[in-house]
Amino acid sequence: MPLDPDSSSPAPPHRDWFFPPAPPFLPSSRARTPRTPFPSTSRSSKPYSFADRRPPPTPRSRSRSPHPPPEQQQQPSTPPTALRRRDPRYAGVRRDDVRTAASEKAAPPAAAPAHGRSSAASAITPRWPGMLPAAVILLCLASLLRRNFSLHDQVYHLQEQLAAATAKLQSCIVDSSLDTSNINSLYQDDNNAMQNRSLKNFSLLISLSVLYAPLVILKYIDIVSKIRSSHDSEEVPINKRLAYRVDIFLSLHPYAKPLVLLVATLLLIALGGLALYGVTDDSLSDCLWLSWTFVADSGNHANAAGFGPKLVSVSISIGGMLVFAMMLGLVTDSISEKFDSLRKGRSEVIEQNHTLILGWSDKLGSLLNQIAIANESLGGGTIVVMAERDKEEMEADIAKMEFDLKGTAVICRSGSPLILADLKKVSVSKARAIVVLAEEGNADQSDARALRTVLSLTGVKEGLRGHIVVELSDLDNEVLVKLVGGDLVETVVAHDVIGRLMIQCARQPGLAQIWEDILGFENCEFYIKRWPTLDGMRFEDVLISFPDAVPCGIKMASYGGKIILNPDDCYVLQEGDEVIVIAEDDDTYAPAPLPKVKEAVYIDIVHPERKPQKILLCGWRRDIDDMIVVRRGYLPKDFVVPKSPERILFCGWRRDIEDMIMVLDAFLAPGSELWMFNDVPEIDRERKLIDGGLEFGRLENITLVHREGNAVIRRHLESLPLESFDSILILADESVEDSAIQADSRSLATLLLIRDIQAKRLPYREAMVSHVPRGTFSEGSWIGEMQQASDKSVIISEILDPRTKNLLSMSKISDYVLSNELVSMALAMVAEDRQINDVLEELFAEQGNEMQIRSSDLYLREEEELNFFEVILRARQRKEIVIGYRLEGAERAIINPTDKVLRRRWSPKDVFVVIAEKE
User: Positive or negative CA dihedral for 356, 361, 364, 365?
Assistant: First the structure.
């Protein structure tokens, strides 16, 4: 059916460009004339230059004549300054006036308004360099909007033509069977397409605005900062304050960097999706998903078609690469920081009931070994070591020690025991024992640091579950540490312990090996435990109640847990009392029924007939009754072997040598001599001894003999009567005690020189050949000659490095004392059970009980057969407790024999190890 183009049709109603027109078949629709959405205006954006005062002519600018008409020339002339300010063509002149006004500091009052305007102009001047990028950005946005609007106008014209054609077609609907539903659907699709086009343009505008908004804001902040800084030089610029806030946010919050990366990723996906939605025909959800694929994989943009989609997809891919690089750097830094924290020992220890060791010294290896042996019965344990060293170095040094940890885990952490945060990092409040090692170097500085460590430990808010074992270097500082730590602290004064041990071992050869067996966990050691089945039993019966242990004391509950070694036989165990025993382990012994022993176990001692004597007691003593009455069951006093004067030599100078002198004076018989040979001048010796607290007037049994010389020079040693000394103590000299290897080298050289001099002076060398085969060396060798000399006198060497032990053990020319190892053993025992410290203090003290070696003829007759229980009862006549023995020809003593009921024929040359009161 032909259409008439001239036929009239109702015009559509008047609507804006973003409202779709009404359907053409409605009666209210009418034609409308197209119009432009915005008036077209053009304006030059070129700024005026300083050289040209007049604005450049533009095609659309209003024409102005440079010469005014005559009527205007007759008018009163305007001042040039006011004219320049009103006319935009004189912007350069105004800027020139600003410079002139700024240079004139002494201006008249009438020029004040002009000066104010020049100041405002100077504030506007710095904005011109930043306006060019903003103008370019606005020009680009305006061109994009203009292009979109022109396209919209074309679409609108086409819709108008379609509406006119539809109106002409409407007149033929009655005469034909044409279905209008297709036309309506087509029109509706066009209408929806137009709405989608508007949304796409809007989304594109939003994405561009959000993208360029930070640049504009930052540029504006920079301009404002410059303006404010020109007025006030002391004010911090806004950009610096903003950068500072960002820096603080990233530094204080641990998850700030991942959060910023997540926000940047989501923002990139959102902006990229909106931009893709504006340049493609896909839906918004599809565009967002496509944007995510571009961010995740930069190669997905290869399938983009068209200039707009390609540009947007490349931009999103570049942003995705940047995000991926930041994410990769963040993950790498996090992993590296975590591994670095683990490597340097900064992570927290989540343990409980562990042993915590604070500090690092040469004693650490022996201490770890002893604690590992103690934990073996429990299936292993955990030891945490914290020191101010690198974690990898500590682990490497521990690995070099080459001893079996027996299932115990050693965890190293780097930190300072003076910092509470580092203490909490190693779970100090949950440790069952805390060992504070003394530092190497000056004794006062080491004890001062130990004191500060105890203060830090007592300041833990959570409290401490275990006790603190502190190793001190000077006995004078013990009182102060106990005052600060209170009941939590147990102290072990290493220097004092070694000094007392050296004196005991010098007087009784072979005692050093016994102390090694008693202190270490490898053999037998002290244990304290309560046995309710023993309540009401006498201590004499308790002694033979343990087949696998040797009782040696009682912890009395009625006296507040006081430790009593070697109590009376008549003491009856009360409820709450605990028994102190020497056993192999805490789970290897238990009381058993009393064994059968001989009824008459007491030895009948035949004494020569004594004549009646008259004795006069002048004065009155508190224990005069004990002097008169001899207790029943004990040997008479004259059975004790009388003491004889001794001559002892000290080689070297120790820090606490005055304490050793006082202890030695209490042990030796009257008339004994103590020779002191070292390189300290004799004038300075008395001053040092007096400063250390020694009172020469209180020395009752010994006389000091001073000799000056170097202990490693042979001619100096040859000036001494070395063959006449009963005991020689080679001390780790104070000048070299900081270096264990140097001190041991000096001690070993002194030992060899002394033994060689003694061997050369030894008379009747050929007659003493029978004494040589105590080792594996030939009779004519120098070692054999030194072994002969070792039978004449006892030499005790203070050894600091455990590696020197093998040299002295192989040669058998000295009864050695291993200082660091013995101290480590004592620390380990006190760490496992703090009550053991009271036992050790009594055994090391000047008064009370001590370890002694006794000859067998004191307890049995020749060729008599007795079991160990019977020997224990026989020794009770002397109020002594036998804990072991050493057979004739044996190198080591046996502590706590396994078969105590086995009868044995003892030799007169056998010796017994006992706990007895100090004589």
Answer: positive
Give me the amino acid identity at 533: T
Measured CA to CA, the distance from residue 470 to residue 454 in angstroms comes to 8
DSSP letter for each residue of 196-207: HHHHHHHHHHHH
Q: Which of 127, 128, 125, 131 is nearest to 102 (CA)?
A: 125
Q: Which residues pair with 813 in a beta bridge?
A: none
DSSP 352-407: SS-EEEES--TTHHHHHHHHHHHTGGGT--EEEEEESS-HHHHHHHHHHT----TT
CA nearest 660: which of 523, 500, 447?
500
pLDDT at 373 over 70: yes
Cα 706 from Cα 702, distance rounded (Å): 13
Task: Please list, in sequence order, all residues whose beta carbon lies within 8 angstroms of the beta carbon of residue 435, skipping any fewer than 6 positions away.
Answer: 355, 356, 357, 358, 367, 469, 471, 827, 831
Distance CA 809, CA 233 (A): 81
Candidates 202, 144, 189; CA nearest to 20 is: 189
DSSP secondary structure, 779-803, as one string: TTSHHHHHHHHHHHSEEEEEE-SGG
Closest CA relative to residue 330, chosen from 412, 264, 274, 408: 264
Q: Over range 535-543, report the average pLDDT.
A: 92
CA distance 240 to 237: 5
Pairing of β 894-895 and β 849-855: unpaired
- Collapsing DSSP states into helix, strand and coil, what is residue 121? helix
Q: Which amino acid is at 494?
A: A
Nearest to 872 by CA among 550, 419, 400: 550
How many CB atoms lie under 10 A from the CB of residue 676?
A: 21
CA nearest neighbour of 268 among 195, 325, 343: 325
Compute how many other C-beta atoms are within 10 angstroms of the C-beta atom of residue 83: 13
The C-alpha atoms of residue 353 and residue 383 are separated, in whole angstroms, by 10
For residue 70, give the amino acid letter. Answer: P
Do 487 and 452 touch, CB atoms closer than 8 A?
Answer: no
Neighbours of 468 (CB within 10 A): 27
**For residue 154, pLDDT beyond 80:** no
What is the helix (H) or strand (E) element at residue 208, kind and residue range?
helix 181-231
> Helix or strand or coil: residue 893?
coil
Report pLDDT digits (tens) over 710-719.
999 999 999 9
* Cβ atoms within 10 Å of 420's Cβ, excluding its own: 15
Strands 578-583, 794-799: parallel, antiparallel or unpaired by DSSP?
unpaired
Q: Give helix 494-507 / helix 511-519 axis angle, nearest 10°.
A: 140
Residues near 140 by beta carbon (within 8 Å), at least 6 away in sequence: none
3-state secondary structure of 97: helix
Residue 144's identity, in one-letter code, is: L
pTM tops 0.85, yes or no: no
Q: For residues 66 and 56, what is the distance between their CA atoms, to the nearest angstrom?
A: 13
- Looking at every residue in the chain, the average pLDDT score rounds to 75
Evaluate the CA torsion angle 399, 403, 404, 409 in order and state its sign. negative
Tokens of 607: 């004494």
Residues whose CB is less than 8 angstroms from the CB of residue 478 and which lie 6 or more positions away in sequence, other chains included: 472, 491, 493
- pLDDT at residue 215, rounded to an integer: 73
Which residues, 6+ apart, have CB-to-CB distance to 591 below 8 Å? 531, 533, 534, 545, 546
User: End-to-end distance of the chain based on CA atoms, in angstroms?
Assistant: 145
Whose CA is closest to 220, among 127, 322, 337? 127
**Cα–Cα distance, 813 to 790 (Å, whole number):** 6
Contact 352, 383 (CB under 8 A): no
For residue 312 the two structure tokens come to 């947007």
pLDDT for the residue numbered 467: 94
How far, in Å, CA of 446 to CA of 437, rounded? 9
DSSP assignment of 31-72: ------SS-------PPPPSS--SPPP-TTSPP--SS--HHH
Task: List Cβ neighbours of 106 (8 Å cut-off, separation of 6 or more).
Answer: none
